[in-house]
Design goal:
homodimer; about 220 residues; alpha/beta; Rossmann fold; about 10% strand; globular
Chain lengths: ~220, ~220
């Protein structure tokens, strides 16, 4: 069986990606990051998702993304409500986050001798995040080939982003067909102390509309 | 004044790079990593070097590179003596290390609004490390452009590797001409508890020969 590293945030998208990787016959090694995110209950969700779908191992990597700030997800910048901002790159963008996550995934893959890395980037919903675009993923894969043993052995890492062109509703339909239990996933940027979703942020808005459009009951627990 | 992020390990090469960046008129923001390296006294050296040459700020980022092993620098694999191994990629190679360091540097640069990143890679001495080669650096710069706000604003990060084609002796001559105090730098992969260099590993060997060739007195403190 081929091995794959799967970046697993605990959100709806990455849970779906893990199910896709399993359905494609990979032995999956999940990797999650504790980067000082506001929504730390993501990590509890990641553990539940890894256990529910089944992985060979699950690495939790603690990193220091908040040491220099720059994002509403790691700083004291308020998380805006959905549609309340129209900048090209939203304030919830964490500088170079996916680049850092992918670099760690490549390190892990190199040690495992895995050649596939799965990531739940999605350019339909999040076109404002440069590190979710296919041209970035392609350029990163090139750097990964040239910066690792792959360069000397003439093969390359495949960075699989199976959600790249799907809408949130399509992602939910895909995951549902693969048996993903979305009740254990977490998407909200601004949950309360009990992990209940705010229902107001961009991420909640996309998720809620996704379930509605997909015609799948929304299992998310929202704050009253 | 333009800002630059400078990757600073505390070794001879990165100290020289910091001096080069200063001499080119950059305001320098140093970044060092605590990645569970055997030679942790590198970090003490990095602090001394930053203070000696002068930086605007110095971020120490703690990361978890040893969570999955794979290198003599982070594992219990013995550090080999110089010239005792002839593999293409040495056992002291840390998987994807420079990729991870550069990804963090891009994140820091993005927050600082710096467009230049300095790194002390050097392909003459370390041709066995794929992540020190110019083709990797170029591919990474491309990924950094496409994965950050730079993509929408049509500029790019310049990853400056001023030591790329210099021999160790040339690096030492360059740094000496810029006033670098090499007595506070640390290169050994396998120092003793007092931080004294082993004099036997590949890194010690290159350093010692470099001083000899450069005709500069070697200030390194070796174990008896």
């Amino acid at each position: 069986m081929k091995k794959a590293v799967v970046l697993l945030s605990g959100g709806l998208d990455s849970a779906t990606v893990l199910a896709v990787a399993k359905s494609r016959g990979f032995q999956c090694y999940a990797m999650s990051f504790d980067y000082g995110q506001r929504h730390e209950c993501e990590l509890a969700a990641a553990k539940k998702v890894a256990a529910s779908i089944g992985v060979e191992d699950h690495k939790l990597v603690k990193i220091d993304l908040c040491a220099w700030g720059g994002s509403a997800l790691t700083d004291n910048i308020p998380v805006p409500d959905a549609h309340s901002y129209q900048e090209k790159v939203p304030v919830t963008y964490v500088p170079a986050r996916n680049m850092i996550f992918l670099a760690f995934a490549v390190a892990y893959a190199e040690v495992l001798e895995a050649r596939d890395i799965f990531i739940g980037v999605n350019s339909v919903d999040y076109s404002g995040y440069p590190d979710c675009r296919p041209e970035f993923i392609k350029a990163f894969a090139r750097a990964a080939k040239l910066g690792t043993k792959a360069a000397d052995e003439d093969w390359e890492y495949t960075i699989q982003s199976p959600l790249q062109n799907l809408s949130k509703a399509e992602i939910i339909k895909l995951g549902t067909s693969l048996g993903v239990d979305y009740s254990i996933t977490h998407s909200c940027y601004n949950p309360d102390a009990n992990g209940l979703a705010c229902g107001k942020c961009d991420s909640c808005d996309l998720r809620r509309n996704g379930f509605k459009e997909a015609g799948v009951p929304d299992p998310t627990r929202y704050q009253k």
